[in-house]
Specification:
- The structure is a homodimer of 452-residue chains.
- Chain A has 3 domains: 186 residues, FAD/NAD(P)-binding domain (3-Layer(bba) Sandwich); 124 residues, FAD/NAD(P)-binding domain; 112 residues, FAD/NAD-linked reductase, C-terminal dimerisation domain (Enolase-like, domain 1).
- In chain A, 26% of the residues lie in helices and 28% in strands.
- In chain A, the strands form 7 sheets. Chain A has a 5-stranded parallel sheet with strand order 3-2-1-7-19.
- In chain A, helix 1 packs parallel to helix 8.
- The longest helix of chain A is centred in the C-terminal third of the chain and has 15 residues.
- Chains A and B meet through helix 8, strand 22 and helix 10 of A and helix 8, strand 22 and helix 10 of B.
Chain lengths: 452, 452
């Protein structure tokens, strides 16, 4: 069996590795990768740029092309796929450094793991030097080089996950930092009442957050490098700019080949990670849509954790097992300095937009029993369906140890638990870890009282 | 309606408060409490003794008798119940300081919340001064007084939750500390391979753990205070001794009245927290047995979190709702210094004793992505049923942030999830919080591989 993989990161390499481990010599696997690195942690780039990760880009590489080759995978570096031909089961490619060096690859099964690319809207000046992305390891190298020039003022454009993490990196690098966003508060995956705690945390660390104030222009200085960012309300000095405007699925190849894509642009796959309607084409990771188990809708949620699970499922299926990817519940976590931020399921806004009649409760408690002097505040918001009492989502913003508590909420949402069932849960308690009722359960109790 | 409550801590006061809040003047509630304090955090005593909680015993009191009285509860302090007469719906009591001052209380409903008392086996010398308990706030005051005398050597007898927490308190107080236990490793609620990580953490902090070496005698010095602890293997100098030998339900009154008790001595209740066979007697907290949802067996697990839930359920039921306490899954957490310790469900030993055919996986990973210099090791062990793949239990020992991850495992065990379903779960990931696969899922994957 000849398996061709386009893309050498999470989905691509974990499916290839899984498959090789299980089928050995009976499968030939070729991986086309247009980057230098394979299997790296893109999520780690903000922390590397912040200076929290020792070493060069290799520190973020879980497995290099050489190691993959040693495991029997034919990993081609600097090769960019240019065309998928499903009818003839063939992919064309060129060398990244030489577009005339065309080659073709036949396959029995194709795995599309082309990932995502950062959004770059046509804002004037977006391409001038000093306006940076942090999507790839090469982006990270450029950013670290730019930081060597000892900038003083930074502007972060966009306050989603990458924006918040790059704002933290700027604080770690002791830059005077402004964060601009279209929305009124950071992190639109949270409700604004929760997001306001994040802008407060930013202010506490000297970061200026400006909501409803998108970047209108990047202005170069006399040296041609970025000098400021212009908005409708003013100019912000910027020796360095980080873009965190979100990503889009890289699915031009797939779309050109006629493969189905959804409204997000992500490839549409079935619950086995097969491209819908294609027996021998598989896809996963940041280039696909997945099913949200709470809304039932297809969603585009590019995250390393899903990408790895997709890879595992594809590898298992190609090796003869019957493996299913049963969807996601929208779990996510990040932090800004010591403020941890996490969410799962639907926010109040999302649920309302989906026409659900919901009740919410938002409580403030502490990360340890209140009598500890180092207990830190944490806020938990629970969203529940008025009809059946089911917990649709949970959001957490709080001090150290607050964030990872989202995982019990995620497991509860995954299992369609009601607020009443959540109150019953046997969650862990000792004074250094929480009050006697776990915060998620305190919020669930309040929801329950409202539902009654 | 006249409701009489015996015991003024978690179950007693939360049921009484719940009921008063809901029924107001239509219920008369009298609480008999043989201690000075109500509604206090016994779990906080080790941290208070360690010096980590500012202030006196009041710091650990969530609600004082005066506050409860202001809420309309007739809280009697220093009154000890001596007899329950179910036929005549009457309880006799005496004053703690005057056994001849007998009074009787009639009730329509009785709530038994008598709690537990520490085990004190007939070890010679167990009552000499300096051999201390940490069960009540008064115990804590005695311990803090004793620490004022600047002891140098401490022995902790018993390495369960209280023993481990008191060993930490001794380290915080800069005492030379030895911990003795009957079992080979600390924390018999963990498997020995996990327990060995705890004795290692103790050694790292200069604490000597001696397993399979129970205390045989407490030896007094010339001043009559404890001077050493004798075992079969030697003598350990001790200016202060903390007993952590576990607790027994305080159910002498209940048993004398003919109420049903189980093999643990705990009162047998139904899923509404009614004493089995009695329409108008309720019980909860450290004096009852509860149902373990994994084994299906009645178990005795005295913990504040269950006690509070029992109180809530009793309060709701007495106020006309239909509330159920659906059992526990044996979730527990503690820590020794920066080593966090948590468990849920059945250990390998427990499952084997129950005749289950189990597979286990024990993995070592880190609390953050491996490329963070401050990532700390954590070990996770998962126990699964070979027959249906169901996760029966999980144990965690690891650095800061490791422990609270037990809650997602607890939610999974609560929902009877299989190892395969656990691998599918959408748990949170960002590099400062974990590797791309949550440790619980890595262990579940290994279990799954073994099951196949």
């Amino acid at each position: 069996m000849r398996v061709l993989v386009i893309g050498g990161d999470a989905t691509g390499m974990s499916s290839a590795s899984q498959l090789k481990r299980r089928l050995g010599d009976s499968v030939d696997i070729t991986v086309l990768n247009d980057q230098r690195w394979t299997s790296y942690s893109a999520c780690g780039i903000p922390y590397w740029v912040a200076g929290e990760v020792a070493g060069g880009p290799d520190s973020l590489v879980a497995r290099s092309p050489e190691k993959h080759r040693a495991n029997g995978l034919d990993v081609r570096i600097g090769i960019s796929a240019t065309r998928i031909d499903p009818d003839n089961q063939q992919v064309s490619a060129v060398e990244v450094t030489d577009a005339s060096a065309v080659s073709t690859f036949d396959y029995d099964h194709l795995i599309i793991a082309t990932g995502a690319r950062p959004l770059a809207p046509p804002i004037p000046g977006i391409d001038i030097p000093g306006v940076l992305r942090t999507h790839t390891l090469d982006d990270g190298l450029v950013a670290i080089d730019a930081l060597e020039e000892t900038p003083r003022n930074a502007v972060v454009v966009g306050a989603g996950f990458i924006g918040v993490e790059m704002a933290e990196a700027c604080v770690q690098r002791e830059l005077q930092t402004t964060v601009l966003d279209l929305a009124p508060e950071p992190m639109v995956v949270m409700d604004p009442d929760m997001g306001s705690l994040i802008s407060k945390a930013m202010a506490d660390h000297g970061v200026t957050f400006r909501g409803q104030e998108p970047a209108a222009e990047f202005v170069a200085g006399p040296d041609g490098r970025v000098a400021s960012v212009r908005t409708a309300s003013g100019d912000y000095p910027a020796d360095i700019v980080f873009l965190g405007l979100g990503v889009r699925p890289r699915t031009e190849l797939a779309a050109a080949a006629g493969l189905p894509t959804g409204s997000s642009g992500g490839i549409q796959i079935d619950d086995h990670c097969r491209v819908q309607g294609y027996e021998n084409i598989w896809a996963g990771g940041d280039c696909v849509e997945t099913r949200h188990r709470v809304s039932g809708e297809p969603v585009y949620v590019p995250l390393g954790t899903h990408a790895n699970k997709h890879g595992r499922v594809i590898g298992l299926n190609l090796s003869g097992e019957d493996a299913v990817f049963p969807g996601i519940v929208g779990t996510a976590i990040t932090k800004f300095m010591s403020t941890e931020i996490a969410r799962v399921g639907l926010t109040e806004q999302q649920a309302t937009q989906l026409g659900r009649d919901v009740t919410t409760a938002s409580i403030v408690t502490s990360t340890k029993a209140g009598y500890f002097s180092d207990a830190e505040p944490m806020r938990v918001k629970v969203v529940a369906d008025c009809e059946d009492g089911r917990v649709l989502g949970c959001q957490i913003v709080g001090g150290v140890s607050a964030g990872k508590r989202i995982d019990s909420a995620a497991t509860a949402v995954w299992n369609s638990m009601t607020a009443s069932e959540v109150v019953d849960l046997d969650l862990s308690y000792a004074p250094p870890f929480s009050g006697v009722w776990e915060p998620f359960q305190i919020a669930a109790r309040q929801v329950l009282a409202k539902l009654r």
